[in-house]
């Protein structure tokens, strides 16, 4: 895949419907991009990919590098990746996600109907992440899984990387509309799906606007084949927003 | 692009919002597939692509082959194409679109969450097609354009080709959920977007299930950039269903 195109495996509504027993082998996933996020079999933790390295961030607060060779048995029931080449890099401080959103909109004024790939490097404060504990039974939907998630607020400012995507409103149910970001600290020992965060001072924000979106649907997965995929948009916003 | 993948340019909600002054050059479009449908600049008529040949079917009931060389100035503001290699071919008769839908569902029992590319060859009866007359002003939305469409029912049975796609429900607003089909007669002199049709006897139906969907969004098109794209799903079903 060319640079700055989104490759997406499955659709977020399938996670809402609990389709997470199978997935795309991570060796296949990283062949489509070096920057991304997603989840693992049975929604056990949060996936982040940066500089081509893939990490699993679990609800027990451990972070593990994941083997992405063809020998790996790790799979992604849902993921989005890109071969990230930022077109704009700037420094800014922001108090919360809304302020970050405004910075990105200032730098990409014509982006509302497009995707953005986003990376932020620096020191963050008040960062609250969640890590899904995983399904308590196969087929459990993301809303229920979300009720068992662990959330954690870093008491001290923490240096690390934020990896994410902004997806346009009209993709809701297929992608996660709005900003969807995962955090991993500099030591690659803690992280998760960002619920809220801000900065004290400037951080480095880099991003690229994306107009090509490739969706691969799960084949040979009876759970996906039978799923209703009705797209509980409000639910997705609650659990992934 | 590999065989039996959908390449789509723009999203159907953009047509609903009247984004049709620009588009993908048809030379680019046919590089992604040999089978498909779409529309032209200002929604002037219906596009059908079969065996790599592209035709414009207008509301004055003329059909014109369109130059797809790089020299062509024809563009598609919206189109879906595939490099079609049917995986199932069968013969059947059907009284209406609903009965055709049932035949396809019988042959592709696990297809509800996937795309189908469809081609039908034979003699059709009671076929009613519409051909959009085009925008009366730039930016006019598809619903209004639809009010000025010409529809035509063939009085006699007519031999020809039907080219289309079935798109899953969750794509509504981006694609056209359900069966979306265009007809062109054997002589390539008449045709349009199918509103209703049936057969007297058996026709040849070929199709392929598709799990890879590539969406290219219009860049450098201020109309797309500014469009609301709120996705009037009921409206799309009325005007494109």
Topology:
2 copies of one chain form a homodimer.
Chain A: E1 6-9, H1 12-16, E2 24-25, H2 26-29, E3 35-39, E4 46-50, E5 53-57, E6 63-65, E7 75-76, E8 79-82, E9 88-92, H3 97-107, E10 115-131, H4 142-147, E11 150-153, E12 158-167, E13 178-185, E14 191-198, E15 203-210, E16 212-216, H5 222-226, H6 233-240
Parallel strand pairs in A: 1-16
Antiparallel strand pairs in A: 1-8, 2-7, 3-4, 3-8, 4-5, 5-6, 9-15, 10-11, 10-12, 10-14, 10-15, 12-13, 13-14
Family (chains A, B): Belongs to the alpha-acetolactate decarboxylase family.
InterPro entries (chains A, B): Acetolactate_a_deCO2ase
GO molecular function, one term (chains A, B): acetolactate decarboxylase activity
Structural write-up:
The structure is a homodimer of 241-residue chains. The first copy, chain A, has 241 residues and is an alpha+beta fold. Chain A has one domain: 2-Layer Sandwich (60s Ribosomal Protein L30, Chain: A), CATH 3.30.1330. Chain A has six helices and 16 strands. In chain A, a hairpin with a 5-residue loop joins strand 13 and strand 14. The longest helix of chain A has 11 residues, at 97-107. The model of chain A has no long low-confidence stretch (mean pLDDT 95). Strand 16 of chain A pairs antiparallel with strand 16 of chain B, so a sheet runs across the interface. Chains A, B: Pfam families: AAL_decarboxy. Chains A, B: This is Alpha-acetolactate decarboxylase. Chains A, B: Belongs to the alpha-acetolactate decarboxylase family. Chains A, B: Keywords: Acetoin biosynthesis, Decarboxylase, Lyase.
């Amino acid at each position: 895949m060319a640079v700055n195109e989104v490759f997406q495996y499955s659709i977020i509504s399938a996670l809402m419907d609990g389709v997470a027993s199978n997935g795309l082998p991570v060796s296949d996933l990283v062949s489509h991009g070096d920057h991304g996020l997603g989840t693992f079999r049975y929604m056990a933790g949060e996936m982040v990919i940066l500089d081509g390295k893939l990490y699993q961030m679990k609800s027990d607060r451990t972070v593990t590098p994941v083997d992405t060779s063809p020998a790996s048995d790790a799979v992604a029931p849902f993921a989005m990746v890109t071969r990230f080449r930022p077109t704009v890099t700037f420094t800014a401080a922001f108090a919360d996600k809304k302020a970050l959103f405004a910075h990105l909109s200032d730098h990409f004024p014509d982006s509302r109907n497009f995707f953005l790939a986003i990376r932020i490097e620096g020191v963050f404060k008040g960062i609250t992440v969640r890590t899904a504990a995983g399904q308590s039974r196969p087929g459990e939907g993301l809303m229920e899984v979300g009720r068992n998630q662990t959330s954690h607020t870093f008491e001290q400012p923490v240096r690390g990387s934020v990896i994410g995507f902004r997806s346009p409103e009209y993709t809701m149910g297929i992608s996660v509309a709005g900003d969807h970001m995962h955090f991993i600290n500099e030591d690659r020992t803690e992280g998760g799906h960002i619920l809220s965060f801000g900065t004290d001072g400037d951080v480095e924000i880099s991003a690229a606007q994306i107009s090509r979106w490739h969706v691969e649907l799960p084949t040979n997965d009876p759970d996906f084949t039978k799923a209703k995929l009705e797209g509980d948009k409000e639910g997705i916003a609650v659990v992934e927003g």
